[in-house]
Amino acid sequence: MDRQSMAEEIERLKAEKKEIESRMSILEAQLSDHEQQQQQKTTTTSPSNGDAAFDGDGLTPEMIYRYSRHLILPNFGVEGQLNLSKSSILVVGAGGLGSPVAMYLAACGVGSLGIVDNDIVELNNLHRQIIHVEAYVGQSKVKSAAAACHAINSSIKIVEHREALRAANALDIVSKYDIVVDATDNLPSRYMISDCCVLLNKPLISGAALGLEGQLTVYHHNDGPCYRCLFPTPPPTAACQRCSDSGVLGVVPGVIGCLQALEAIKVASSIGEPLSGRMLLLDALSSRIRIVKIRGRSSQCVACGENPVFTQEDFRTFDYESFTQSPMSDATRTRLSLLPESARVSSKV
C-alpha cells in the first residue's frame, strides 16, 4: 500500500470513528434518561414477560447494554432492535436446523419465541442439534430447547408447543406469530407449513440440510412465491431423502440454521434484502455458496395465485401424507425385519 492509499485509509477510519462516537453519545444520553425515569418509578415489571421488555416506546437500560453491539450498527440500530423485540417468531422443529435458529433468535432479543415439536431428545441427535445436552436425552425437545433459550436470555417470552404441527392445529398456532421458520425435515410438513403461511399471510423462512449440502429461501414475502409455486406437484418419493435416511454432517444444518435466523431477523427488523425470489445453495464439501434466482409467484398457484382455490377448510382436512406419499415425520423409517439366514427358503439350481 503506497503513502497516498495509507493516508486515505486513515481518513476513512477517522470518519468511521467519529460516526461511532456520535452514535455512542446519543445512546449514552438515552441511557441516562432511562435511568432517571427508572429511579422515579415506584413499581417494577417482570423480565420474564415479553411485553415487559420495553420502557415506554424505547428500550430499557438493560436492553441497551445487552444489545449494544446491535445498536451501533448503522443498518440496524435502535429501530431494528425495537422492531425485533416487538416481533413474534415461530420455529417449527427443534432439531438440527431449529437449534441454531432458536438460540440466535433468543440471544438477539426477539420479543416472543414459539417452538413447536413433539419429538424427544435422542443421543444420536446431539452431533447436530446443539441446543440439547445429554441430561435431556429422553425428554421433550421443546422443553430442552426452551430451557436453553431461557438460559441465554431470560427477558424474552418463550412459548412451548409440545405437539406435532398438523393441519388440524396449524392455523390456530401459526396465527399467533408474525413470522414462521420451517426447520423440519420432511416433505409433507413443507407443503403444510407453506399453505398455512399463505392462508394467514405470514412470511416463511425455509431451510433444508442433507449430507454436505444445504439450501435456504424466504417464501410468501414481498410478493415472492410460495412452496407450491415452485413445486405444484410433489417430487418422486425416491428424490425426497431425509437426514435420518441419508445422514448429515453435524455442522451443515448449523450453518443453514444460522442463516435462517439471519433471514428471520432481517424480515422482523425490516432491514436488508431477504432471500425472497432467490435461493441460497451451500456445498460444504467445496466450501461454495451460490445465490440463484428462483421461479416467481405463479398466477396459477392454487394457494397464492390470482384465483386461489385452497381455503382454510380445505387446509384443515387436506391429507398431506397421501398427497406427497411420504410420512409427516423426521424419524427414521421403519426398517425391514429380515429372517435369519437359517430360517430362509432358497431354491437350488
From TrEMBL:
The membrane spanning regions, by residue number, are none
The record's GO molecular-function terms, alphabetically, read: ATP binding; nucleotidyltransferase activity; thiosulfate-cyanide sulfurtransferase activity; URM1 activating enzyme activity
- State the Pfam families in the record: ThiF
Region Disordered, as annotated, extends over 25-55
Q: Tell me where in this chain the THIF-type NAD/FAD binding fold domain is found.
A: 67-301
**Keywords assigned:** ATP-binding, Nucleotide-binding, Nucleotidyltransferase, Transferase
- Identify the GO cellular component terms for this protein: cytoplasm
Report the PANTHER family cross-referenced here: ADENYLYLTRANSFERASE AND SULFURTRANSFERASE MOCS3 (PTHR10953:SF102), UBIQUITIN-ACTIVATING ENZYME E1 (PTHR10953)
Q: What is this protein called?
A: Adenylyltransferase and sulfurtransferase MOCS3-2
- Give the source species: Iris pallida
